[in-house]
Here is the input.
Amino acid sequence: MLAKRIIPCLDIKNGMTVKGINFVNIKEVGDPVELGAWYAEQGADELVFLDITASHEGRKTFADLVERIAQNINIPFTVGGGISELKDADVLLSAGADKISINSSAVRNPQLIDDMAHSFGSQFVVAAIDARFDENGEWVVTVNGGRIPTEKRLFTWAKEVESRGAGEILFTSMNHDGVKQGFANEALARLSEELSIPVIASGGAGKMEHFKDVFTLGKADAGLAASIFHYKEIGIPELKQYLRNNGIVVR
Amino acid sequence: MTHMNVAIIKYNAGNIRSVDNAIKRLGINAQITDNAEIIRSADKVIFPGVGEASTTMAHLRTTGLDKLICSLKQPVLGICLGMQLMCKHSEEGDADCLGIFDVDVKRFELPTDNVDNLKIPQMGWNNISNVKMPLFDASLEDKFVYFVHSYYVPLCEWTAAETTHTLTYSSALHKDNFYATQFHPEKSGPVGEAILKNFLAI
Here is the structure.
């Protein structure tokens, strides 16, 4: 039976791993290749590397890093951050990335999803959606790391990215991210029911129970987290044993 | 195994590099090539693949790689789309394929109730059972490997491993010198490495 996936996310700036608390207050926590290999050994099912470097030179550093990751890590990994054109994705594919994630650039130019799915296949394209549940009771899609609200709404946008050819959705709730009080399970369950492609849940993991909830109540296919893994608040082997004990299929 | 001559068939498919990287981690420098002589003289041939069946088959026909692959006598390992293209026909783009395995590739269909919330594509780690030598050994029974696919090969007389997603299908095939896996051994951690080692030791 298909296992639920546990995915550590590594934010990369200037070739080093960082984690933002609510996307600000950045601290360095290590070398990405070393940390990625360690996670693979620990039983992580996949890795996500997000480049939060804005500069052109930084982009080149990131592509070199992706090449080193591909040489050293024997599990699948997704890379994202600053991908706004086909050629950005092509560079990362050639460097050895298994998937790329696109976020703000897809909101601004939805055709990019079609083009990427057509050029590289749907399995290569992860549509990342950052959304915030607002005071009017609506899930508003945001861009630029959650800073700018858009006209788009979570469920209609998720449907659209699926129909344009995205192979997976990575949904981050900006209300839950960094707060460690659990994932946005209600919204996640609705996404999972309305879409036929896999949904990766992001934002809110604080303890092992939150992963059990996201796979049962939230019906997610994968759970992604950063700081709780980086700061060793939760160990992946312990987390998997806990999930197994609770009847959830994990590798 | 260091001096083994491994050819990875180069064609218009995505991420061939990851297979090369995995082989390198086993201490072997493979050649990524579409040169018929090099492929024919290799000790082992790997036919990887990520992409769409009908356009890839058209490409293989234009380059003559289709006939070459069918004529190979040394151990050949097809991976993912590579395995599907070694079958007779694929529903993906209604493509006639190489016909090494006389079986047709079908698209997954979700059950109408879908209580388990299954998805297409199947993306992630699933287990392999009823595994057969020599690609697998008993220690690999029930182990998890990494899959990404929307089309599958039904169970047939060449099934070398089985996996269940909406139904039980062939996650590996074997006939004569031809071997194939639907999953990606190059992305399947230590289990995948063991399978690649087994293939290289055939």
Q: What stands out?
A: The first helix of chain A runs from residue 32 to 42. Chain A has ten helices and twelve strands. Residues 20-26 of chain A have pLDDT under 50 and may be disordered.
